[in-house]
Amino acid sequence: MVPSPTLTLSKVFLSLVLLFFASLSSSYATSRLTHDPVNSHQSPAQKLIRSFNLSPKDPVNILKGDGEGFVSGKIVEKKFSFFGDSGPSIEDLGHHAAQIHYWMFYFFFESRKSKDDPVVIWLTGGPGCGSELALFYENGPFHITNNLSLSWNDYGWDQASNILFVDQPTGTGFSYTFDDSDIRHDETGVSNDLYNFLQEFFKAHPEFIKNDFYITGESYAGHYVPALASRVNQGNKENQGIHINLKGFAIGNGLTNPAIQYQAYPDFALDNGIITKADHDDISKSIPECEQAAKTCETQGGKSCDNALNTCNNIFDSILSIAGGINYYDIRKKCVGELCYDFSDLEKLLNLPKVKSALGVGGDLKFVSCSSTVYNAMLQDWMKNLEVGIPTLLEEGIKVLVYAGEKDLICNWLGNSRWVHAMQWSGQKAFGTSPTVKFVVDGVDAGSLNSYGPLSFLKVYEAGHLVPMDQPKAALEMFKSWIGGKLNTQRDN
């Protein structure tokens, strides 16, 4: 096998857009950030689950001051040579009017194949983790290698799309604000911010308005993705701005319907030999209380959602206490390091002065890989059921793909399969009786697929929580087949 060429930083060329865009109107804004003492007493599972905390130097990017001296009322886009031989070469492409009061950061990569390929937005979970985790370790154009050099990712999703990686919610990654009232607490605030972001993006890039548009993400993006899809669909119906050509959305190892997914933990752990039958039966006694607490969260909100999270996390905590040092993102592995993976090179790379200069990032701003403040601010959103808006989208023909690596414990395939099958829509019965067929890549079984109409569920073999990292080729083939309308046509040979 011919190895992928290693690219020194002086040879890599990227397109980046740094977006300065509008703050939300008061009708869209969520409540001001408060420091709730409940959040300071988190269970081990609550601290671990879906939170790649890479020990950021700053808990969140809230800068001191009122923003004086920063560009205001404009979207600033920069296309640049990434660490060119003579230093960063940055060219302003344009300035577009906007009402600004916080700043959102993102990378944008044009397709390696055609500008007519779909536009795709990728959202990493956390909540509060920057999408650079996926960009540099999963499905972006490059991977970080030794000595902070970069290598081409042959299986980057820019092989088939024009792709955005966004640091959100506000305060995540390189996104920042001068006012902590911009920190979001629920999917209403998050989805409205992202909708405004997309409006400004397409204003800056009208050449992509006609392209098909897809929303993708993993982990806590099981909340973000369907919320944004519903928000885009609403905006299109009400002619609120530029019509976004939404065709579908995909959720990878996501948290979408917590009440159902938490109930699946004991069964998954038993099936995979993590706990014994006696353990399973004992832990399962907590399920009715979790289910009731989740229902109360849906109807009452607020503090009841804190209670639901604590109650349901007793199930996960109990499994972890038995499992010992297992990697809860990939049960084939031991957990090494604070949260089982070493992504420390990401912070080293993005906080290098020459990198920040090339990206147009101010000297005082630090890259925050995972924000504890954003994480804590979203805790009352955690147990909300985001499946409820998906049936409407399915009925309107918007494609939905839910995929899950089979070796993930935290957002396991079993819990995801259960909520997908339980979802009430006109195709529920037909989907439930659809045959399970092989997902084949290069003649090898790479997963098992169920599909009917616009809905697909794919269990990916030999993969954990981060499917594009564990099975990059299968992930790319899945993505290409799905956006190309061919995934549901697979049949057993």
UniProtKB/TrEMBL annotation:
Compartments reported by the entry: Secreted
Q: Using the record, list the residue span of the signal peptide; answer none if the entry has no such feature.
A: 1-29
KW Zinc (keyword) present: no
Question: Mind telling me which InterPro entries this protein's record contains?
Answer: AB_hydrolase_fold, Peptidase_S10, Ser_caboxypep_ser_AS
Q: Which Gene3D superfamilies match?
A: alpha/beta hydrolase
Give GO MF terms, alphabetically: serine-type carboxypeptidase activity
Per the UniProt entry, the Enzyme Commission number(s) are 3.4.16.-
* GO biological process, any: proteolysis
User: Which keywords are on file for this protein?
Assistant: Carboxypeptidase, Disulfide bond, Glycoprotein, Hydrolase, Protease, Secreted, Signal
Against Pfam families, the record matches this protein to:
Peptidase_S10
GO cellular component terms given for this protein: extracellular region; vacuole
Job of this protein = Probable carboxypeptidase.
Q: Which family does it belong to?
A: Belongs to the peptidase S10 family.
Q: Under which name does UniProt file this protein?
A: Carboxypeptidase
The species is: Vigna unguiculata (Cowpea)
